[in-house]
Structure prediction request, 269 residues.
Amino acid sequence: MRIPVVADYFYPSQRKELEEMLRNFFEKARKEVEERENVIGIVAPHAGYIYSGLTAAYAYASLPKKLNKTIVIIGPNHTGYGGEVSVYPSGKWKTPLGEVEVDEFFVDELIENCEIAEKDEAAHIYEHSIEVQLPFLQFLYGNNFKIVPICLLNQSLEVAEFLASSLLKIKMDFLLVASSDLNHYESYDVTKRKDMELIDSIVSLDLKRFYQKIENLNVSACGYGAIATLMSLTKKLNGRIELTKYSTSAEVSKDYSNVVGYGALVAFS
Prediction:
């Protein structure tokens, strides 16, 4: 079992405090976000909840109240441990809200269909980008869902497109959560300008332009491979992506000289 490693750092470790925080986030988000039945996936940030939790709720608020799908969560590899495409193989993930089971059958199918992926726990041991998504899902669905955690060290366009194609070969219903913050540690004006250009390429489903923006503008979005996988998947399913919320850390810290950008987006058919 994978135990939480960033509780008390990124989000509260006490159940009641965590539930109350999430309840407040969703009460605000649901006033502005439309629930959708045909969701393909979402993009949600993974910073500390005090900074990005409300924005993440704007992504999760678009999900249907009932969900009978495996949830594939893709996050970047911040630590450098493990393989290029590391799939957590089996067992459960624990948070203050309970335990969530890994969908071993889905994992086996993915490994069989995706030669670049490997079963690997090492990449996930100290990684926070997937863990911080789980309480949002547990708040919505209890512990009555299964997950497939995928940690990307290689976030190239080729990997994203191959992973999306491999996921579509699996004859099981799934929803994709792409875990990513946007631009890091520049001024508010610079960060917002870069992020808006990147978001424009995301909602346009223009993968080549998306990677060009990251390179040419030096956009430090950490989970760009996860976002690209969702873009590719959405494009293959003839879907659309919409922005539901944009914010920066400055709205909490009041420091406009050194900010991180956060985007909530929903992909649907």
Observations:
- The chain has one domain: 15-268.
- The radius of gyration is 17 Å.
- The chain has a mean pLDDT of 97.
- Residues 15-268 form a domain with the Protocatechuate 4,5-dioxygenase; Chain B fold (CATH 3.40.830.10).
